[in-house]
Amino acid sequence: MIFEVNKVAKGFDTPKGRLEVLKEITFSVAKAESVAIVGRSGSGKSTLLSLLCGLERADSGQLKFDNIDYSTLSEDGLTSLRATKIGMIFQQFHLLSHLKAWENVALALELKGDKEAKDKAFNILKEVGLSNRENHFPNQLSGGEQQRVAIARSIAINPKLILADEPSGSLDESTGDEIMNLMFDLVEKHETSLLVVTHSDRLAKKCSRILTMQNGSLVQGASL
Prior knowledge:
Blueprint: E1 3-14, E2 17-29, E3 34-38, H1 45-52, E4 60-65, E5 68-69, H2 75-84, E6 86-90, H3 101-110, H4 117-127, H5 143-156, E7 161-165, H6 173-189, E8 193-197, H7 201-204, E9 209-214, E10 217-223
Parallel strand pairs: 3-8, 3-9, 6-7, 7-8
Antiparallel strand pairs: 1-2, 1-4, 4-5, 9-10
């Protein structure tokens, strides 16, 4: 297994008392498997994603990525994990506005110390269909093109896992379908595992497995 989540819980203190957001979540993701996590707003999906990418710590339970226990890692260790082994795709793209498309992709490689970052950035942008847009800044690109850059950035580091948070949420249906087909083609080509959080049934059904969250618990798992 690439990712193992075992009885993970997370809560927050509020003026009205303790709010348990995640309640002993357990699931795993296999190599090259695509898994969708669906559920209504407030079901705990975003909190779970924050734990999976190491931006927050679980209160209890165990998270293991590639046999590495998160609890044994420092904050720097978690940052290194995200920079070298876990690709991330967001709804709002999160591209750096002052960097060109190729520079946004190359930055992810430079953080790994890759001396061929520029050449690799141009190659992966060609792979996502942006061979004529490498020198454009984000504000010169359409939403679909920006998400292509974001996908290129996530794939560039050759990750073992990609975490995607509503990757088609800011796109119209036609563009979203096009971008999602590209994402699935790339993760299959690179044999990368994919975990996607989404409200979209269309996107979820492209995954090999669907997990449903409700009130902080996993209530359903389905194989398609």
